Structure formats: structure tokens, C-alpha cells
């Protein structure tokens, strides 16, 4: 049996202290890995279905045989790991705000996603996704305005529950139009949300994108011994 609790890493950031901890869950009889921002839980290895569905559903609707994909937010790495299962991936660029999170993966501290940083298709970039997504330079300073086949976003809890107030401008018509300009025509924008679908946000997506939908993703919750749900928003650049 593992030690019941271990803090694996932490680092101050402008948004708060980000930390990674491992604890042995007596109910699950397994190690659980959790990311916290100050006292707020950001991600847990107990709940990864929706994060993986973000990649699967987003890439399923993305055309092309050699895909260049952006992921906003690295976290525990489940979205990136699922994306790499797609045989059409050529490059996968993960934009992560905290260099501490990138370091966790470079040191393979997370057993389920070990080896992610070493994959030749993967680039882990320490940058602010929201700044890059709304700037004409985009995600690659060496190729300003470079476009991608898909953008998969998993950072904020929802369009209404943000990790930081500076993210708010992204969830506007102007912010989404700027992000759309970094997609190829027919490219996919997909986003995870911990809340139920919000009609107002779906309508906002429809002012920028086509073929917009919000899929509810249900999964078993071992903490409540019931079912919980998240939402995946999907949209296509015209």
C-alpha cells in the first residue's frame, strides 16, 4: 500500500499556488492524483471521462489525414493522451500556463500519462492560452498566424466559472472570432465545461461557428456513488 498522502510539487503563480498531490483513496483502493489552485480543486484522476471525450469527440469531427492540434491546458494529461490515440495526429501542441505542470510531466510523476512529454509529436509550451488565442501572432511566434486543424480547450471550470478574471474576454464574440481565425476552414473548436450546457454560450458560439452542439457526458462518481456530468461544446469554423 502507498503512503496515504504525498505532495509531489507546488509553485506560486499569479493566479495562486498550484500543487500536485497523490493520496491513497480507501474507497477506490488506489492512488488518486489531484491538482489544486490554492484551495480549489482543478482536476482529479478520479474523473477523466469528460477530458478524454473532449479529445475523442473533437477529433472525430475534424477532417484531414495529418492533423496539427492545439490543446489549451495540460493538467494531468488525459486529454493529450487521448488525442494521441488518433492515428491522424501529426503534431500536438499543448499550451500550459504553469511551467510547474510541464515539469510534472517531464519528470513522469503521473503514471497514467507517463511518457507524454517524450512523444515526438508533442510540444509542451509554457504560455497563456488566452493571450495567444486572441492575438494575431497566435500559438507559434515563429510562424505568426499559423492555423491548426483543431483547438481543444480544457482550462476554466465553465464559461461562467473562470479560474481567473483575465480569461473573460475570450468568452465573447471578439475572443471566439480571434480563436476561429487560428483554425483552418472546417477546423474544430471543442471545449470542456463542468457545468450543464448554457444556452447563452451555445448561441454565442453560433455567431462565430457552424454545426454547434453541446454534448452532456455522464460518468460514474465514486465519491457520491451516483452519476455526474460535464459538457463538451463542439463547433466548426465555416
TrEMBL record:
<dbReference type="InterPro" id="IPR029063">
    <property type="entry name" value="SAM-dependent_MTases_sf"/>
</dbReference>
<dbReference type="GO" id="GO:0006596">
    <property type="term" value="P:polyamine biosynthetic process"/>
</dbReference>
<keyword id="KW-0620">Polyamine biosynthesis</keyword>
<dbReference type="Pfam" id="PF01564">
    <property type="entry name" value="Spermine_synth"/>
</dbReference>
<protein>
    <recommendedName>
        <fullName>Spermidine synthase</fullName>
    </recommendedName>
</protein>
Amino acid at each position: 500500500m502507498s503512503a496515504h498522502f504525498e505532495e509531489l510539487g507546488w509553485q506560486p503563480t499569479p493566479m495562486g499556488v498550484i500543487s500536485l498531490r497523490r493520496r491513497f483513496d480507501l474507497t477506490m483502493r488506489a492512488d488518486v492524483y489531484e491538482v489544486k489552485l490554492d484551495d480549489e480543486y482543478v482536476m482529479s484522476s478520479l474523473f477523466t471521462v469528460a477530458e478524454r471525450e473532449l479529445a475523442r469527440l473533437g477529433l472525430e469531427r475534424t477532417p484531414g489525414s495529418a492533423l496539427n492540434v492545439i490543446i489549451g491546458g495540460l493538467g494531468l494529461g488525459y486529454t493529450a493522451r487521448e488525442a494521441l490515440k488518433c492515428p491522424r495526429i501529426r503534431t500536438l501542441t499543448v499550451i500550459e500556463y504553469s511551467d510547474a505542470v510541464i515539469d510534472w510531466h517531464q519528470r513522469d510523476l503521473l503514471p497514467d500519462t507517463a511518457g507524454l512529454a517524450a512523444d515526438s509529436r508533442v510540444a509542451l509550451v509554457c504560455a497563456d492560452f488566452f493571450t495567444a488565442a486572441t492575438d494575431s501572432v497566435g500559438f507559434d511566434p515563429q510562424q505568426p498566424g499559423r492555423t491548426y486543424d483543431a483547438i481543444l480547450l480544457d482550462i476554466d471550470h465553465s464559461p461562467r466559472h473562470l479560474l481567473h478574471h483575465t480569461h473573460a474576454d475570450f468568452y465573447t464574440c471578439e475572443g471566439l472570432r480571434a480563436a476561429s481565425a487560428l483554425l483552418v476552414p472546417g477546423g474544430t473548436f471543442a471545449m470542456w465545461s463542468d457545468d450543464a450546457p448554457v444556452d447563452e454560450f451555445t448561441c454565442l458560439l453560433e455567431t462565430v461557428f457552424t454545426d454547434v452542439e453541446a454534448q452532456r457526458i455522464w460518468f460514474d462518481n465514486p465519491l457520491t456513488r451516483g452519476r455526474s456530468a460535464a459538457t463538451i461544446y463542439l463547433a466548426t469554423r465555416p
